[in-house]
Amino acid sequence: MLEVILSKTFNMLRSNLLSQISQESFPEIYSAINTAYNTIDQRLYRIEGWFKISGPELEDFDIETLLDLVWENTSKCYPKDNANLQIQCVKGLKIKGDYLIHFTDLFRIFLDNMFKYTQPVKSEKNFNIICKLDDKII
Predict the structure, then answer these.
(1) How many CA atoms are closer than 13 Å to the CA of 23, on its beta-carbon side?
(2) Which of 10, 75, 91, 111 is the most buried (most CB within 10 A)?
(3) What is the tens place of the pLDDT at every residue in 35-93?
(4) In the chain, which residue ranges form alpha helices assigned H by DSSP?
């Protein structure tokens, strides 16, 4: 997006400047403008690449393993809470790797709310999560 805006603006400036001078009269300026345009275009393209997510695709993940991982990280945020988590999931329940970040965020919010809004029983917070598969819906 930024590259498109800058490229259009630079093209407009370049066109206006080049229309005011002739290539025959000022070949060095004409050449310098085109060189600058190409250099800026290449650098913008390179900078744009910094913000693209690339690399290998994420592998499909086991929902129970992800819950364990998110639990481990979330429980560290509540060191004063004596909390336990029991997870019961269909074994081998896999989610597409493309959704890993989204499920991680959802589980983090879910577990965070459990910690915040659950009252301890006998100074403990015991949580149970059950994952079922009904008609291909978790």
Answers:
(1) 5
(2) 111
(3) 787 787 778 777 777 776 655 678 888 999 999 999 999 999 998 999 999 999 888 78
(4) 2-20, 27-50, 63-75, 100-117
